[in-house]
Amino acid sequence: MHFFMIDPATGKLIGTCPELNTTDVEKAIQAASEAFPSFRTTLARERARMLRRWYQLMMDNAEDLAKLITWENGKPFADAKGEVNYAASFFEWFSEEAPRAYGDVIPATVPGNRVMTLKQPVGVCGLITPWNFPAAMITRKIGPALAAGCTVVAKSPAETPFTANALAELAHRAGIPKGVVNIVTASKNTPAVGELITTHPEVRKVSFTGSTNVGRLLMKQASSTIKKVSWELGGNAPFIVFDDVEDLDAAVNGAIASKFRSSGQTCVCANRIYVQKGVYEEFSKRFAAKVKDFKLGAGFEEGITHGPVIHERAAEKVHEHVQDATSKGAKVLIGGQKASALGPNFYEPTVLSGMSKEMLLASEETFGPVAGLFPFETEKEVVDLANKAEVGLAGYFFSGNVRRIFRVAETLEVGMVGVNTGLISDVASPYVSFCPAICFFANSLLDSVVLSRVALAVRAASMVLMSSWLSRALLLVVWGSLCRHKTPQNIDI
Ligand code: SIN
Hints:
Layout: E1 2-6, E2 13-18, H1 22-39, H2 44-60, H3 62-73, H4 77-97, E3 104-107, E4 113-117, E5 119-121, E6 124-128, H5 136-148, E7 151-155, H6 161-173, E8 181-184, H7 190-199, E9 203-209, H8 212-222, E10 228-232, E11 237-241, H9 248-260, E12 270-276, H10 277-292, H11 312-327, E13 331-334, E14 350-353, H12 360-363, E15 370-376, H13 379-387, E16 394-398, H14 402-411, E17 416-419, E18 432-434, E19 440-442, H15 448-461, E20 463-465, E21 483-485, E22 489-492
Parallel strand pairs: 6-7, 6-9, 7-8, 9-10, 11-12, 11-16, 12-15, 14-15, 16-17, 17-20
Antiparallel strand pairs: 1-2, 3-4, 4-22, 5-21, 13-14, 18-19
Residues 132-133, 209, 232, 266-268, 425 line the site of succinic acid.
């Protein structure tokens, strides 16, 4: 059985992909399980070299990988090339981390004893990845897994499986042993495959990036065998511009970059743009003027700045948010319609002003090319509004006041804060979220054991600051996720 792959820009058939069922995926888990005992004993330095070779092969084949990404995801070719660099950087980074999985020696309370902790690979990791970054989300998960000595079964997204398959071929060329990296493809069997991965006793850790609802279901399933989990779920990022912003154009550019990256289809995209009254009119004018210059079209066309959304359902959701906002008083500054002449998956980059908290966009992630501008008066008001969200992945704000910078950064209930920048994604930065009602979930496969010790430090530290006087600060890197902490043993020496 196969499923069909359709180009989201043209609606044309790209090709077909095997529709694997649970029996096939069981075999992949078995292969990963059989490869684990020997892979875990390879020298960390050797695993580092494998990852480094894989990184290099990605760079050598960057044009081809970018073509696949644009073809199956729709993003402009220049963005796809950027994604290949970003994706490869996870292999480069974790090739450098592999030999550094240090343990601890802790002073014991019993005379003559020493307490030592060792980090060891957890085993087979089940990775479930999304379509918005067909390469980067899979390398972000595989990199640390292999560095730690784990083997993986990765379920690629039904919308974008070819990039993942190409990465598997490069893994083979990089000399990664058979059974260590197993990529499984499925479309309609996705729920069954997800259930198998999250319940299989041989799978010791699951990492998932996707919607909050699916995350909830997978977490429930994973609890049956009490697996380690790392979830990166939905975002609804606030982006705040205060009156005391030093450079309004930088704030406009930051908001454009954050809101319209991948046509608004990233988990860290600004969703609610709050602008203080004193700069609201000017910000709106400059922001709309920039969006007017966008060139919408198929990703391979020359000069295109923004591509389609992934499918018609996504375009429908975007339109629903726009209609809801305008029916409640928002004004369309630019766009506001489907760009049907280009195809059913195109939506005009849209800017709405006069937004208010009753509108759908205020509480629901749009995941599309619509920027809603909300006016506000005071810092307290905007922080309360920003924190009124069920999820808290990223947040951004622009201000030139150093006291406010630290105050607001530490009050926003998000895992990552961009200060005076709209782009926070960096292989060096931990990828964490703060979910008020639930707990911390981490991407990059951060270890729940490690997180429980440094959770607050991670939230406060995962901050990217940019301004004329502060270049970039404090990024705490914790990657122990795939390492299980052995219960500290008292060793009589
Ligand atoms: C995501 O959208 O899930 C990831 C975005 C990023 O890494 O920048």
